[in-house]
């Protein structure tokens, strides 16, 4: 073997053929047998020809309820010189003394006289500066001055680690074997808090499942530096601050290292204050520009809070961009050039802002007063009568509760308004198409955090379906999956308990997830959005616009991700509004 140290992490099932051949094959057998004994680490010496090898084994793996990954052992092998001029025979004696053998027991194993053993012990006491055989034994175990295979063969019983390992490698451990101390030290898990909304079972499932999928994948690979991720989730009533605050404090009490969520925080300004006081990273998809600005203006207080998508302020501009492309390509023609906004009374769903209205006017559109549509308190048929009176070309509906959007669409179809329907986020939820069936066809919707229909996105969707036997949708499941993966990337590089280092890593290094590229920059609290805030699609998330067609989601915009020519005129539009496409 060369002078270079060799280190490998293996499991009991690692094929021998892929292990470094310069390490004696028997050492790999001992390393695999090490996983059978309840030891966190073990060190011994191995004779390879006329050279000594220092072998160090340390356990890396899962124990108890978090044991998603197989136990692994880190094996380090290095050529060394024997300290203090200890000879081969003296090391044999030292090893057997550490086993607790008397001089006669040692001599019997080695086939020498007891007087010879006594002389060798005297030399060892002098070389190692000890005054008793007990001191020699303790020093040998402490420094790993122990030889394997054991001199004289397999021991009659275990006790110290090398004896247990020798029994294990020769399969002599009793079936009911238990070490003297059964508590093997393992690294504490990295605890991840997950806040799950309860207003939509489908939305909540995607939030939790997307996170758990990422956690399971990471744990199956051994976690982060041998530490598993322990998910701790709290299902909360989205609009009940007392319930949410109690859930947060349970996560705080669990000493979680970070918290992730969808958009629960947008409904409660106090949420950020609670997180800031706790002081650990919080990643969310609340699409609320006011909170982003607040964090950017007070980084010393809110700098650990990241919105992992662009804000609601870009939805209106994205819709105007799409309408312009449809008109320019002849895919659709407006009649009245009127837009009616329907808004859920939530700060994060206020998309018909003064800026949007100015942009619309500049593009030749009239925007009516917004119609408030409170969750659980909207008479959608009455709303549609008001909408119909405005004779709009486009209905912009901002509501992230999928059941509300379903109720809207049913009322819309009953009333028969000849307008495009442009939704925000909610149609990404599988429940929308599942509930409406073919009646959902024609709806246009957009998101600032959509799952890409590329190799990474397709693989994620396949993994999600395989694990949960359902479709992940096109937004939130991928978003929270990316949140976990983003944090894991940071935790793999810096100490998970050091919030400042984790935050610094998240800012500095772009992360390519299934929902695009997350890059916050040195001062940002939300990723860049293509094409709204940057022309660089390789360093941002795309503002994706879809149309539901035959139950599938067809990506229309922006290029190069979507194809505007794929637009289909909805069946409910009056033929007179259609183009000659």
Automatic annotation (TrEMBL):
Transmembrane segments: none annotated. It comes from the Bacteria. PANTHER family: LEUCINE-SPECIFIC-BINDING PROTEIN, PERIPLASMIC BINDING PROTEIN OF ABC TRANSPORTER FOR NATURAL AMINO ACIDS. This is Branched-chain amino acid transport system substrate-binding protein. Keywords: Signal. GO terms for molecular function: DNA binding. SUPFAM superfamilies: C-terminal effector domain of the bipartite response regulators, Periplasmic binding protein-like I. GO terms for biological process: regulation of DNA-templated transcription. The keyword Translocase does not apply. The keyword Zinc-finger does not apply. Residues 79-144 form the HTH luxR-type domain. CDD domains: LuxR_C_like (cd06170), PBP1_ABC_transporter_LIVBP-like (cd06268). Belongs to the leucine-binding protein family.
């Amino acid at each position: 073997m060369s002078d270079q140290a060799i280190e490998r992490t293996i499991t009991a099932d690692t094929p021998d053929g892929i292990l470094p051949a310069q390490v004696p094959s028997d050492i790999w057998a001992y390393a695999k047998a090490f996983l059978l004994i309840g030891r966190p680490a073990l060190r011994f010496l191995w004779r390879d020809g006329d050279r000594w090898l220092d072998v160090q084994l340390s356990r890396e793996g899962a124990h108890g309820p978090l044991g998603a990954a197989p136990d692994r052992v880190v094996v380090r092998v290095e050529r060394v010189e024997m300290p203090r001029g200890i000879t081969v025979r003296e090391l044999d004696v030292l090893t057997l003394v550490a086993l607790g053998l008397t001089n006669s027991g040692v001599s019997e194993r080695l086939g020498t006289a007891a007087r010879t053993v006594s002389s060798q012990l005297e030399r060892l006491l002098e070389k190692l500066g000890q005054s008793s055989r007990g001191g020699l034994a303790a020093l040998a175990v402490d420094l790993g001055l122990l030889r394997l295979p054991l001199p004289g063969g397999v021991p009659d019983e275990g006790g110290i680690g090398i004896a247990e390992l020798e029994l294990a490698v020769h399969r002599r451990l009793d079936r009911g074997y238990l070490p003297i101390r059964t508590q093997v030290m393992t690294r504490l898990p990295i605890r991840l808090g997950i806040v799950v909304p309860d207003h939509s079972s489908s939305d909540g499932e995607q939030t939790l499942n997307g996170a758990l999928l990422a956690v399971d994948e990471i744990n199956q690979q051994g976690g982060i530096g041998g530490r598993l991720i322990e998910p701790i989730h709290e299902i909360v009533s989205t609009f009940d601050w007392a319930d949410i605050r109690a859930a947060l404090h349970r996560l705080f009490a669990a000493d979680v290292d970070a918290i992730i969520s969808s958009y629960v925080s947008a409904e409660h300004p106090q949420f950020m204050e609670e997180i800031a006081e706790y002081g650990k990273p919080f990643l969310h998809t609340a699409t609320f520009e006011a909170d982003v600005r607040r964090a950017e203006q007070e980084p010393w207080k809110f700098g650990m809070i990241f919105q992992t998508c662009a804000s609601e302020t870009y939805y209106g501009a994205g819709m105007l961009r799409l309408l312009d492309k449809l008109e320019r390509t002849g895919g659709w023609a407006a009649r009245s050039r009127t837009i009616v906004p329907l808004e859920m009374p939530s700060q994060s769903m206020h998309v018909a802002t003064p800026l949007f209205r100015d942009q619309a006017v500049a593009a030749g559109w009239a925007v009516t007063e917004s119609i408030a549509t409170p969750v659980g308190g909207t008479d959608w048929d009455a709303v549609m009568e008001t909408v119909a009176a405005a004779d709009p070309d486009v209905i912009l509906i901002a509501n992230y509760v999928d059941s509300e959007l379903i109720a809207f669409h049913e009322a819309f179809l009953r009333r028969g308004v000849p307008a495009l329907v442009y939704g925000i986020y909610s149609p990404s939820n599988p429940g929308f198409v599942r509930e409406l069936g073919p009646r959902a066809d024609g709806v246009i919707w957009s998101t600032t955090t959509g799952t890409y229909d590329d190799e990474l996105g397709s693989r994620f969707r396949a993994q999600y379906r395989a694990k949960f036997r359902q479709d992940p949708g096109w937004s939130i499941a991928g978003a929270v999956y990316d949140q976990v993966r983003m944090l894991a990337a940071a935790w793999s590089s810096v100490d998970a308990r050091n919030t400042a280092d984790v935050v610094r890593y998240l800012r500095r290094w772009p992360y390519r997830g299934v929902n695009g590229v997350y890059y916050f920059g040195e001062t940002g609290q939300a990723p860049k959005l293509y094409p709204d805030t940057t022309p660089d699609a390789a360093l941002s998330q795309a503002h994706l616009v879809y149309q539901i067609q035959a139950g599938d989601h067809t990506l229309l915009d922006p290029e190069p991700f979507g194809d505007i020519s794929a637009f289909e005129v909805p069946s409910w539009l009056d033929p007179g509004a259609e183009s000659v496409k």
